[in-house]
Amino acid sequence: MSWNRVAVVGAGLIKFGELFEQSYEQMASDAFSAAVDSVDAGFEPTQVEAAIVATQRGTLWGQEGIGGNTIPSAIGLSGIPCTRVENACPSGSDAFRIGAMAVASGVHDVVLVIGVEKMRDKSTEEGLLSRAASGHPIFTRGETAPVLFAPFATRHMYEFGTTREMLASVAVKNHHNGALCPYAHFQNEITVEDVLASAPVCHPLHLLDCCPQTDGAAAVLLVNAERAEQFTDKPVYVAGFGVATDHPYLHEKTSFTSLKATQMAAERAYAMAGIEPSQVDMAEVHDCFTITEILDIEDLGFVDKGKGGVATLEGETSLTGRIPINTSGGLLAKGHPIGATGVAQLTECWWQLRGEADARQVEMRNGYALQHNVGGRGSGVSVVNILTNNKS
Amino acid sequence: MTPGVQLLAVGAAAPAWRLDAAEAAKAWGRKGGKGQSAVCAPDEDVLTLAAEAANRALAVSGLETDIVDGLWWGTSRPPFAEGPSHAVLARAIGLSHSSSGALCSGSTHSGMEALLGAADAIGAGSARVALVVVSDNIVPGLGTPYEARAGAGAAAVVLVSHGGDASLGARVTRTHPFLDRYRGDGESGTRDLYDPRLFREEVFVPTLRELGEQLAALDVRAWSLPDPDGRLGGIVAKQLGTSTPASAAVYAELGDTGAAAALLGGIGALDAAGLVAIIGWGGGRATGLEINAKGPVRGAATVAHDITGGRPASYADVLRARNQLVASGETVQMAVPPESAQFVRGADEMLGLLGARCVDCGTINTPPSIHPHCTSCGSAKFVLTPLARRGTVHTYVINHTMPAPFVAPLPIAVIDLEDGARVMLQVVGDGSDITVGTEVELVLRKYAHERGVPVYGYKARAAEGAATADAEVTA
């Protein structure tokens, strides 16, 4: 029996990319409009009672700390309650969870969850790369984002014989899906050879093992499940969610072949939704790097530990495979505007559950879609949300 | 004669890079250039060299570091022009918070000043165990003949009031105010000699001959003589009736090691009984000292090995490491400046490499200041403990993509230490000598240089004889 107290009645996003010509506010406004326009029975913006906004790195566009209170004004709803969520890479998915709780609590009936991120208003050197100098002056020095995941690749290769070709097959698959997704940052096919031959970024990861730095925004509209049918005859429900934390630094990990936060968040979400991993029809998971997707599909219970690379190479996670993963193109091809990422993943799940994913549509046998993010300096936080088109 | 001052142990260290003199000559359109010199990699300096030499001497001495009464450090280039150079080194070596000593500087003669200062403290009874460290990392003027001669290295000796295998003997000093090699206010490069012949004939040779003749009254088995240009040392040796001074091999490997040269050139000769005479030079002063070994001194036999090797560095690499080739534009700064509270809280755990051992489950948490609760069991009861300095690589990366001031490739490894603690640290070198399972040792290195001052911490280094990594991990 799934939780199902909250329904998603609208969802949308803007085309992701290096959106130098668009302001943070413009991206937010366009994503909100896309969500409003998606509501089958029509939706007035003024029906939004409150908003939760996810923006992870306000520092990257010069408005650290105030992202939350600029949004209502930007979308023409100045005055509504609005709170910003910053929780590492799962910021968007956590904003969704908090929005769902706000509706379930009965305080609000209609809540907007919107993720917006400007990654490219600063140069890449000043942006994510500058992480190399952040944190502890000794113990995290040199830790750019790939350093947080590459050690897992090294160890996964060592323990399970995972190969660079297997890692590359993740990127090839997600670029294939991205080529079918009009919202993706990259819409081109790539080959395993392309990935292997791309420049080394952080051994053993190369350029095409890494997601790009992308601007973007996405929005979903949550309503009390009892009112869902006022807005649509194809409502999608929040079946369950889970959040978990882990120790924040890499040297505190006891395993470099799994992410404990993901495992715990998944366990909680599955329990809340009352389902097993095998009942999930498709999933949008956190593929900031190719190795991350391999860890994810193992830790989420879709394949056995150690088999993520082989399963991907053999097509089990393709659009026609046993468990399609990242049908939207994932972070690798669609992009990773951090606060928007989770919300955009949920939008893809919403489309898949409503049969609206066009060329990317996969078979939804059981009516469950799973969305996952993991992040923080040492993957110290993970969020899993599960959506369903089953009314109960 | 300094009564009752004995030499218990010695140690030496050299930096990771070697510059071929021909490389430097070629850069300036000159032919020739003989020999090589040692150069500090960007993460090395006089302090990291000093710490390595000191650790080696202390290790073979068999003494615990906390019974050392003081540190006497001689270097012409302290890492903080004004600041906690001595305190940082003392803490990094693990000396007690009540240890004393002195930082001697101002010229390359400072190495002898540190040695004699420590000897006098032992002689006067104010110290029973004194650690002497001499180190230098000469930054020469660009394009000068001295450029290919300027070297880097360190030596350390443990002096005691009794129980050593060698004793300090006669000492003689001459002063002769003269600008030979010097550095003016605000200058970074050491100026080359104004007139080599003037220096040789009026200053260097007469002074050294006079000192040497006094020392040669006894039967000197081995000499350590200053050799600023690769010829003067030989000239003086000949006048003293010796063929090749023991220091010649050190100069050939490392170049001119400045304040470290006198001691570094002589301690290797303490591997057998006999008299070793060393002469230090610089800043218008020259001092000679005799060391009388009754038998092999601990650590002496490995000196030659410990300073030999290094990897060839290009001229451009050397300029960059010496801060003489600087990228234009912004560089990324640390999240916290070197003066901040985090460095006050973290001084002991960063320089002393401390962990917090959980009293309830035994897990070692690092660093202690950010772990009020045990990561394994949640307990809040800890005892501070120095971390093991050796371990194996559990997993690693080689970061190729970083903004200035970082320089790629930068290997970073998760290391399981011998005591069970797990740490994640940068790795010395380019990563070609590590893989999963590689044995490593932890060594003090310079992590950053901000606001004109260095920031030190530990890095991992493949232990000697460790297996070499494949280019690709099980690719």
Describe the structure.
The complex is a heterodimer of chains A (392) and B (475). With 392 residues, chain A is of the alpha/beta class. Chain A has twelve helices and eleven strands. In chain A, helix 3 crosses helix 12. Chain A is globular, with a radius of gyration of 19 Å. Chain B is an alpha+beta fold and 475 residues long. Chain B has a nine-stranded mixed beta sheet with strand order 5-4-6-7-1-8-11-10-9, with helices on both faces. A five-stranded antiparallel beta sheet of chain B has the order 18-17-16-19-20. Chain B folds into two domains: 6-321, 3-Layer(aba) Sandwich (Peroxisomal Thiolase, Chain A, domain 1); 341-353 and 389-462, OB fold (Dihydrolipoamide Acetyltransferase, E2P) (Beta Barrel), CATH 2.40.50.840. Chain B is globular. Chain B is 24% helix and 29% strand. Chain B has helices at residues 21-27, 46-61, 85-93, 110-124, 196-215, 232-239, 247-254, 261-266, 303-307, 315-321, 341-351, and strands spanning 6-13, 17-20, 36-39, 70-74, 100-104, 129-137, 152-160, 166-175, 220-224, 274-282, 285-293, 311-312, 354-358, 364-365, 382-386, 390-399, 410-417, 422-426, 439-450, 453-462. The A-B interface holds A 125-126, 129-130, 132-139, 141-144, 146-147, 150-152, 154-155, 157-158, 161, 163-164, 199-205, 247, 249-253, 256 and B 330, 332-336, 338, 342-343, 346, 350, 366-367, 370, 375, 394-404, 406, 409-410, 412, 414, 422-426, 431, 436, 447-448, 455, 457-458, 472-475. Strand 5 of chain A pairs antiparallel with strand 16 of chain B, so a sheet runs across the interface.
